[in-house]
Write a structure and sequence with these properties.
Two copies of one chain form a homodimer. Chain A is α+β, with helices and mostly antiparallel strands. Chain A has two domains: 131 residues, Sandwich (Jelly Rolls), CATH 2.60.120; 87 residues, Arc Repressor Mutant, subunit A, CATH 1.10.10.10. Helices cover 44% and strands 20% of the residues of chain A. Chain A has nine helices and ten strands. The first copy, chain A, has a four-stranded antiparallel β-sheet with strand order 2-6-4-5. The first copy, chain A, has a three-stranded antiparallel β-sheet with strand order 1-7-3. The longest helix of chain A has 27 residues. At the A-B interface, strand 5, helix 3 and helix 5 of A face strand 5, helix 3 and helix 5 of B. Chain A binds a DNA duplex through helix 8.
DNA sequence: CGACTGATTGACGGGATTCAACAACCGTGG
DNA sequence: CCACGGTTGTTGAATCCCGTCAATCAGTCG
């Protein structure tokens, strides 16, 4: 029953091994399933949040907008994530959560979640760890934007996304759907669209990647890793992929 | 008794109101107090952590170093913080924690902390919230580095630091000790030392700030806020300072 | 006093931005 | 089926913010 929640449960279980009773308690929690469109706003900045969202399919992103209209993407969420956990626990959203692609979400009532957390400490630990891994990723993005050039920044994002998908069991080969437009890549990397465009061409010409619409194929994983100084340590994935490992192995 | 732990307890209590029993349980937890030097490394990248650190006095920072020697500072910690909570809960450090100034820390055994967390859920919530506020701050730094120019980035840091000190009860007037050297400011803002130096001169010449050694005096708070598009919302401080408020009011 | 760290300055170069088009691609509807 | 409008991707030229290199100055401490 409730197999639709499988991606979430599987992720929680990766973060902290759950006992059958934990899983049962989680699955018994009331929730509403909702189909959402690409571009749909799930949580808006400044909103008081009463629900907690689990992402079942599709991709989402959190971003902030400055007064002068500039935008920064803070994180990208993949199926299995709780993209607004921060807002939910702190009770106040300070960035906007929006879908990158059509998808499906599960809505939980915060009161139910709070009860679950006290009754099943393992689940609280799992969720806490999820927020910590998120912190870790944001920190890595900060390093990315602060200390790498355009090639490195974009390469790093491509690596990270591949490995995250892989940890979540959503990537088999070396090609995947990369749900960001060039403008969104720009807003995630602190660059401009124009420069992202040129840098992507650069990477293609160098034979490192191939792109087709929203799909990316990694041709030379080693080089991509080298260009971006990528090491998956910070993702705290269970399978402990070593640097230099290819995502398709 | 154990008044030395006051800064930590007070911060926890701000994040989540604690009952006397919570405070008592916290204070009864065994801990070791340690004086630390400026520059001392508390946790190194890649280390498995068995202790949990509370910062009692002085300032610390977390940073990552890339292969080519470039460095990015991820966060600055002030008294009352648990600067390595992430590493402690995830069990593995992926950045380096180092003192910015001489100070004093409290060392707790992770096993004791884990026990406390299950016995006193309010404390777990408080600590969880602390990690969430940290995430929030790192996200704001990301926006800072990704989407603001040098003036904005440095101004933003000055604002943030002032408000954080204020929330922690460590700032009365409009002047404070800013524990970062220009090189460290550069590593926090994704700039170079040279450019930080020129930008600081710029801010001084414009009559926005005054600096003397490691001390900063904010002359024109309004302008500093405007330059950096600063809004303290993301700090989730208890006193809900509105934008435009001056730190000395 | 020397040695060291941190702050400052100048000249020069380059990676990234800006502005302003244009092309390709998409789903939609006549 | 193709015309059409909107989004996304692509290109070129000029500009600039910031980086690089290298040297000097100022303060601190043993």
């Amino acid at each position: 029953m409730r197999e639709i929640l499988a991606p979430i449960l599987s992720k929680l279980n990766q973060l902290k091994p759950l006992e059958p009773a934990d899983k049962e308690a989680f699955l018994k929690m009331p929730c509403r399933i909702k189909e959402v469109d690409s571009g749909q706003v799930l949580i808006d900045e400044g909103i008081r949040t009463v629900n907690c969202i689990g992402l079942l399919s599709g991709f989402a992103y959190s971003h902030q907008i400055l007064q002068d209209g500039k935008r920064q993407i803070i994180s990208v969420h993949i199926p299995g994530d709780f993209p607004d956990l921060k807002s939910a626990i702190l009770g106040k959203a300070c960035d906007t959560l929006q879908m990158l692609s059509p998808g499906r979400i599960a809505l939980f009532n915060m009161a139910d979640v709070q009860r679950l957390l006290t009754e099943r400490p393992a689940i609280q630990t799992a969720l806490w760890r999820e927020t910590l891994v998120t912190t870790s990723i944001v920190g890595e993005w900060l390093t990315n934007v602060g200390r790498r050039d355009a090639r490195g920044r974009i390469s790093h994002h491509l690596c990270e996304f591949a490995v995250r998908l892989r940890f979540a069991g959503l990537l088999e080969g070396n090609a995947y759907e990369f749900p960001l437009t060039q403008e969104q890549i720009a807003d995630a990397t602190g660059l401009t669209v124009v420069h992202v465009n040129r840098t992507l061409q650069d990477l293609r010409r160098a034979g490192v990647i191939r792109t087709k619409r929203r799909a990316v194929q990694i041709v030379d994983w080693q080089r991509l890793v080298q260009l971006s100084d990528f090491s998956p340590r910070y993702l705290h994935g269970k399978s402990e992929m070593r640097q230099g490992d290819r995502p398709d192995q």
